[in-house]
Write a structure and sequence with these properties.
The complex is a heterodimer of chains A (423) and B (616).
Chain A (H helix, E strand, L loop, with lengths): L14 H22 L11 H20 L4 H25 L1 E3 L2 E7 L2 E3 L2 H16 L9 H20 L3 H6 L3 H7 L4 H22 L4 H18 L4 H28 L2 H10 L9 H14 L11 H4 L11 H33 L4 H25 L17 H21 L2
Antiparallel strand pairs in A: 1-2, 2-3
Chain B lengths: L7 H24 L4 H10 E6 L6 E2 L5 E13 L9 H8 L3 H21 L6 E4 L4 H10 L6 E11 L5 H4 L2 E3 L2 H6 L8 E3 L2 H5 L1 H4 L4 E7 L5 E4 L15 E3 L3 H10 L5 E7 L4 E8 L12 H10 L8 H4 L9 H10 L14 E4 L2 E4 L9 H7 L2 H12 L7 H14 L21 H8 L22 H13 L2 E2 L5 E3 L16 E2 L4 H14 L17 E9 L2 E11 L6 E7 L9 H13 L8 H9 L6
Classes of the chains: A mainly alpha (423), B alpha+beta (616).
């Protein structure tokens, strides 16, 4: 059963996965078409950007068709090679790539550009699945843990070198995959705790309160906890360790924040944390983005009627901020439809991953799911002002070839794998 | 491989769903709570652009264009988008320094805030009005790189003929007060400040139109909003026909060269003002465009007071001109009859008071007293009237006299369509009591009989007296609006279509008019100043005044039968009435009645034009 032949075409590709994909791409195209159309345009004339997107969708169909003939055995077998190749491409781009918007992450081919980092997600997912899905592999032991984390942290370094902070963040979604594969839950809790500490120390910095107060508070609470737990030596040691390391950590965050981050990065962070009111500079984009979504009310302002987005008050209206158009033109109803489609796809991916007969498929499926989720989370969180403005696309919806093709490749490689390998 | 963590899949499903709901909640708070974001979005994207209407074109009574409109350009700014790096450039074009620039910008900030209250779609404000042609060209070429600035066309006055400045008035920027009172106006709007421009502002301004456009983040227009409610054209002010005869007006201005004073000419049967002149005056073209503010400030401090509208604001002792009125009152009250004679020994004597008179043969009847302008006659008549026993007391007698005077429009505004008209002064019994004591007697106020003392008239009132005499007992309040086509009653108020009747019989007028006719004949005070072929009826006046040499006054109308023009002239410090005022009046009458033939008294014209009483 385990390695059945690749030509089992009596199985069809998962209908729900394909359905949600088509729905999301359609939502994307309608909104790209709308937001890039002429101001008073109500007829169905396509803008250049909408034409391009049609072309990209055509390309995506070609990718899907090509994948539907792919040999599944090869997917599994080639994982490490693909990973190595894409890593090499991403190193190469550092030297021979061209710079677009401050990020040196593009290979230029005439009028087109390809961002090799878009394919790094797929390659990393395959490599991680291959490593963790290996026979008899268990997620334990320092060596295994280090290797698996290394598989997705190495790309992060490369992407950071390409000056593309937004994409680098996405790789932290693999921690969620590790959780599914048995990484202890407390690590996630610990990560939350560290995140909380980091935010607190930035708030203290932003308010220009000495970090000694934060450190003092942490150590104070720790001392009280130690007093109550004084009967158990184990707890005393654990709490002491936690308190001291928290204090050290928050101090370090403060120092790093102060010295490593650029002023504009600090600005974005501090605006989101509510430490800064700035409706002209950095905050302008965020403010206008919220106005656009808020303007949609319940049923939206209607197709091609979203002035916030159409008139350019929202930046990057057809790429990173495409969600504003959904919110403005289709309202709360449109948001629910779009969210349902996206959540539907994610849950379906979990179901598909869970029904895989082998660990490779399962881990690969979770990787796809978590990457899509993380993109959605950061992108939407950014437009509604819950997290700092980080430029990453909304999968399947944002305009742009690299992103659409990258995500299509990612999703359909898994759907193809599932088509052949599911029970 | 054993899958020991399968349970964790449900943690994923629940966790994801939770985060989706959390985001949905957040979006709900943006979209569903209230419409503040929707309003902000609409405000962002719509810009209501005001379309400025052309003001009424002003014509004279014969259809000659006096004032029309010329395109002018104002520089507007969205203060928020004005860029520091462009400042030097803009300063250079406008030829202002950085301090002035900052002042203008601050003002624009304040105005844009105000504008937003009235018109939520507009965050721009006027920055610099009335660009010169050079500035306009230089700015328009570079506008694309001057973030936040744009140019708005509007209209300003352009005068075809420079005349009648005080009648037509001038335009200026709407004042703070007006902006507060009337939301129609925006900072920088031109409004009528004086003259008929002010009086008829409401229809002369026309109606602003609106063009609503989509605008993007950079305020670049992105097409018109396709909705009629958001777009309507400006409506021009209707054609305004003034009563002024601009040819007569210009002629009067030439005659008045080098003199100070005022002329008002009226068509008696209608109350239409044919000429309305003050000297010194100003060139209306100086109060137009970019120089407006600077010229205006200069005129304000000019000791010659070129902006001063003497014709309705200046008050003068009328002198002998009002002897005509006193004669009418005496006749109507039956105190004298046309044949009543009085002797004159070269002056009127009461104890140690003497009112001088010039040498003439006596005794005189009413006609003769007017011809000669005998002071003794009118001092006597004045006392006879107010001291007449039928009134009981002198004060009661004076009250009767005062009522008559007021029926002639003296002591009250005539109601001309100009703002700020003075009442002149006709003293009441009480006013005289303040001056001369409670128990004042006729001898104390005797100079009122010859138009001196407390009695003061505006040149307009003087001309109106001439009109009343011409009409033999009525007048229509003088006015400057002839017609505006398309308005009800041609835009004329009820008052300008209604006769005001003076309670004096027409036959008494004939007596006085005979006297006025003889004024122009041998033995009259203005002998030799008449015009051949026109029977002019006039009355000279030489008014003493505390400001120096006597004022020269003259009232007249012509022709005697079916008069076409009545006129009142004051030449300040001009001496005898016959010296300057009378020839100006008769020449104007000639000009008006025989406009197409050459003047029979060219030498008089030349003399007046070249006589300079005070350097201008």
């Amino acid at each position: 059963m385990k390695y059945q032949s690749s030509s089992t075409d009596n199985n069809k590709m998962d209908i729900w996965g394909v359905f949600f994909y088509i729905l999301l791409v359609a939502i994307g195209f309608i909104n790209i078409f709308s937001v890039t159309s002429d101001v008073n345009q109500t007829s169905l004339v396509l803008s250049d950007i909408a034409y391009k997107q049609l072309f990209f969708i055509g390309g995506a169909v070609v990718i899907i068709l090509t994948l539907s003939f792919a040999n599944v055995v090869l997917i599994d077998y080639l994982s490490y090679y693909v990973y190595a190749l894409v890593i090499l491409l991403n190193i190469a781009v550092l030297f021979i790539g061209k710079e677009v918007g401050g990020a040196k992450s593009w290979f230029g081919f005439g009028g087109f550009g390809i961002q090799p980092s878009e394919f790094l997600k797929l390659a990393t997912s395959m490599a991680l699945a291959k490593f963790l899905g290996g026979y008899g592999m268990r997620f334990s032991g320092w060596k295994n843990i280090t290797y698996s984390i290394g598989i997705f942290l190495f790309p992060v370094i490369l992407i950071l070198l390409q000056n593309d902070t937004g994409s680098a963040l996405v790789y932290f979604s693999f921690f969620l995959v590790l959780y599914r594969e048995g990484m202890p839950g407390y690590i996630i809790i610990l990560a939350f705790w560290m995140g909380l500490l980091a935010i607190l120390s930035i708030v203290f910095q932003g308010l220009e309160i000495s970090s000694y107060y934060l450190v003092g508070t942490i150590l104070g609470i720790g001392s009280i906890a130690v007093y109550f737990a004084r009967k158990s030596r184990q707890w005393v040691v654990l709490i002491s360790f936690l308190a001291v390391s928290s204090a050290v950590f928050s101090t370090l965050v403060g120092i790093v924040y102060d010295n490593v981050f650029q002023w504009y990065q600090k600005d974005r962070i501090e605006i989101v944390l509510g430490l800064k009111e700035d409706k002209q500079g950095m905050g302008y984009n965020l403010d206008q983005s919220k106005v656009a979504i808020g303007a949609g009310r319940f049923i939206g302002r209607g197709f091609q009627n979203g002035t916030q987005t159409k008139m350019g008050f929202v930046p990057e209206q057809h790429t990173d901020f495409i969600f504003c158009t959904i919110g403005e033109e289709w309202g709360f109803v449109g948001v629910i439809v779009f969210f349902s489609a996206f959540l539907g796809l994610l849950i379906r991916l979990i179901q598909l991953a869970e029904r895989q007969s082998d660990a490779y498929g399962r881990i690969f499926g979770y990787s796809v799911c978590c990457i899509l989720f993380f993109h959605w989370f950061v992108n939407i969180g950014m437009t509604i002002g819950l997290i700092p403005v980080i430029g990453i696309p909304l999968p399947f919806v944002s305009a742009g070839g690299s992103s659409l093709w990258g995500f299509t490749l990612l999703l359909f490689t898994f759907l193809r794998y599932d088509q052949v390998r599911r029970n | 491989m054993q899958d020991v963590h399968k349970k964790r899949s449900s943690v994923f499903v629940i966790g994801l769903s939770f985060i989706f709901l959390l985001f949905l909640y957040r979006i709900g708070t943006l979209q569903l709570v209230d419409d503040k974001y929707e309003k902000r979005a609409i405000n962002n994207a719509l810009n209501k652009i005001t379309l400025y209407p052309a003001r009424s074109v002003i014509y004279d009574r014969f259809g000659k264009i006096i004032a029309k409109n010329a395109a002018s350009y104002d520089l507007f700014v969205f203060p928020k988008d004005e860029k520091v790096e462009n400042r030097l450039f803009v300063q250079q074009i406008l030829q202002i320094d950085s301090n002035q620039y900052n002042e203008l910008l601050t003002e624009a900030w304040i105005n844009s805030k105000k504008r937003q209250k009235n018109n939520a779609y507009n965050r721009s404000a006027i920055f610099y009005s009335n660009l010169s042609q050079q500035q306009y060209t230089a700015l328009r070429e570079n506008l694309y790189r001057l973030s936040g600035f744009y140019i708005e066309p509007r209209t300003d006055r352009a005068y075809e003929i420079f005349g009648g400045a005080h009648a037509f008035g001038y335009l200026g920027e709407a004042s703070e007060l007006l902006l507060k009172e009337d939301p129609y106006y925006q900072p920088g709007d031109l409004v009528g400040i004086t003259g008929i421009e002010r009086y008829y502002e409401e229809f002369m301004r026309g109606a602003k139109g609106v063009k609503t456009v989509w605008q993007d983040r950079t305020y670049k227009q992105r097409g018109e909003v396709q909705d009629e409610a958001f777009n309507y054209p400006a409506k021009s002010g209707p054609d305004f026909y003034a009563t002024i005869d601009i040819e007569l007006q210009k002629f009067a201005e030439e005659l008045f060269n080098g003199k100070r004073g005022s002329v008002v000419a009226i068509e008696p049967s209608t109350g239409e003002v044919l000429a309305f002149l003050n000297k010194p005056d100003y060139n209306p073209n100086d109060l137009v465009g970019q120089d407006r503010a600077r010229s205006f400030r200069k005129m304000l401090i000019d000791p010659k007071k070129p902006l001063y509208n003497r014709a309705v604001k200046g008050v003068y002792p009328p002198g002998s001109t009002v002897k005509t009125v006193l004669a009418l009152i005496g006749l109507q009250e039956g105190i004298i009859h046309p044949g009543s004679t009085k002797g004159c020994g070269g002056g009127y004597r009461m104890g140690n008071i003497v009112v001088g008179c010039h040498p003439h043969g006596g005794p005189l009847d009413v006609v003769g007293s007017i011809r000669i302008s005998c002071n003794s006659y009118y001092c006597g008549l004045f006392r006879e009237i107010i001291d007449h026993p039928k009134y009981g007391t002198t004060h009661n007698g004076y009250r009767v006299l005062e009522r008559y005077w007021r029926s002639f429009g003296l002591g009250d505004p005539t109601g001309i369509d100009l703002l700020g008209e003075s009442s002149g002064n006709v003293p009441t019994v009480e006013r005289l009591a303040k001056r001369h004591g409670k128990k004042w007697r006729s001898s104390m106020v005797i100079s009122l009989g010859i138009g001196q003392g407390e009695i003061l008239l505006t040149p307009l009132q003087l001309a109106n007296v001439a009109a009343i005499l011409a009409n033999r007992g009525y007048y229509i309040p003088p006015h400057l609006l002839k017609k505006v086509n398309g308005l009800k009653n041609n835009g004329l108020k009820q008052e300008y279509r209604t006769k005001k009747i003076i309670p004096i019989d027409a036959k008494h007028f004939e007596t006085v008019i005979e006297g006025m006719s003889q004024v122009m004949k041998p033995g009259g005070t203005a002998n030799g100043i008449g015009i051949n072929g026109i029977e002019i009826c006039g009355k000279t006046g030489t008014a003493q005044n505390p400001h120096g040499k006597d004022h020269s006054l003259f009232i007249a109308f012509a022709p005697r039968n079916n008069p076409k023009i009545a006129i009142g002239v004051i030449v300040e410090n001009g001496g005898f009435g016959a010296t300057y005022a009378a020839p100006i009046a008769t020449l104007m009458i000639e000009k008006y009645l025989m406009r197409d033939t050459a003047s029979s008294k060219q030498f008089m014209i030349d003399r007046l034009k070249s006589t300079v009483l005070e350097p201008q």
